[in-house]
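Can't paste images in this forum, so I'm doing it all in text. The chain is below; anyone willing to post the predicted structure tokens underneath?
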Amino acid sequence: MNIDIRGHIINNFKEDDVNVLMEAIEESIKEKDEITLPGMGVFFEIIWHDADDKLKSKMLDIIKKRLEKEK
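Text version of the structure:
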């Protein structure tokens, strides 16, 4: 069985405005819903592909600092 998660997530949200995107992200984080993690990964992948080196470095710094807090 071949599931195109990326395609599904993109098609599901591509017509939505930024408010809907923000709500989906915030709700996913708030609920700590494991099912939404693949969608969050697709969102991150989209950001990563369009980010310049400065933004990528900033995201990596944020991730690293947050991971260190979780210890």
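The mean pLDDT is 93. Residues 5-69 form one domain.
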